[in-house]
Model the fold of this input.
Amino acid sequence: MNVLNDSVGRRVSYLRISVTDRCNLRCRYCTPEDQFPLLDHQDILTYEEILTVVRALVPVGIDKVRLTGGEPLVRKGIEQLVAWINDINGIHDISLTTNGVLLAEKGKDLRDAGLSRINISLDTLKKEKFSYITRRDYFSRVMQGVETALSLGFSPVKINVVAMRGFNDDEIIDFAALAEKLPIHVRFIEYMPIGSGTGWQAGQFISTEEIRRRIEDHYGLLQPIPTDNCAGPAEVYSLPGGSGRIGFIGALSNHFCDRCNRVRITADGRLRPCLLADIEFDLKTHLRHGADAEAIRALFFQALAKKPKSHGMSCNSVKKCVRLMSSIGG
Ligand code: SAM
Done:
C-alpha cells in the first residue's frame, strides 16, 4: 500500500486529533471569552470513529498520534481512548497537549493507559498574569499538573510557551531557568494569527530569534541538539549546565513547512492538512455515510494532495485564519 505522501513528497506519519472544542480556560490569544458556538456532543467524532480512522491510517504510515483540543482532559473517558489507541498495532507514539489543569487528577491513569509523552501549555510563571491571560484562576492546579507529570516519569515533559511581547517577554529568562533546574523542555512558540476575534497584533509578535538572543545574552551560547527530519517543528538547544532543553518554534519567522509531517482532525471531524490554511475536508460526514478503511484513506490522500507547500505567512505578511485554535488543536 502507498504511504501518505503529499504533492511535494513530504511523508505524513503524524496525526493530531482535536477531541473536543471545549476548554476549561479561555486564553485570550486562543478563544474569545464567550459567545462562540460550542459543538453539540453528536457533532464531535465518537471514540469509535476516531479509532476507525487511526486503524485505517496505520497501513499507510501513520504511527504517531497526538490528542489535543480544546482541552482533551475535559472529555470524558480520555484515558480509555489513550488505552485503545495504544492497543493499535503500528502506533508507536501517543502524546497529549494539555493546559495541565486536570493533570494532577488524571496523569496517573493516562500514564497507565500508555500515554508516551505530554506537552503542557503555560505562558507565564506568575499567578496574576496567568489569571489574566487564561481568564481563569487555575495557576496552582497547572503547577501541580507539571509536578505530577514529572513525578510520574513522563519523558520528556514539554512546556509550551506562546511568546507575546508586552505580556511574557519579561519572563523569558525565568522560563529558561526552569529548563536549567528541571528535566523540562521549554519551547517558545511564535504567536500565530489564528482565530477571528482573538486579536492577534503585529506589535505582540516576538520572533524566536530574539528570544534565543536574549537567553544567550544571559546564559552564553546555546548548543544545538541535532534532530532528525521527523523530530518536529522545534529547533532544540541544551542550556549550559542545565538538565532540560530549550526549543524554538518559529511558526512565522522560520517556518518548518518543508519538513511538516502532520495532518490534523478538527474537533468537528474535519480533516485539515495545514494548521495555517483554511482548507478542510469533511471526514465526519464521510464516516457517517459508511466510509470503510479504503474510503477513509482515499479522503486522506485527496486532502494531502491539497496540503499547501507552505502556509505562506511570515511576520510581515500575515493573513488571519478564521477557525479558532481551540477547535484545530494547535
Ligand atoms: N488545551 C490544550 C492546551 O492548552 O495545550 C490543547 C489545545 S491548545 C489550542 C494547543 C496549543 O495551541 C497550546 O500550546 C496553545 O498555547 C497554542 N495556541 C493557541 N493559540 C495560539 C496562537 N494564536 N499562537 C500560537 N499558539 C497558540
The mean pLDDT is 93. The chain has one domain: 14-328. The longest strand covers residues 157-163. The first helix runs from residue 47 to 57.
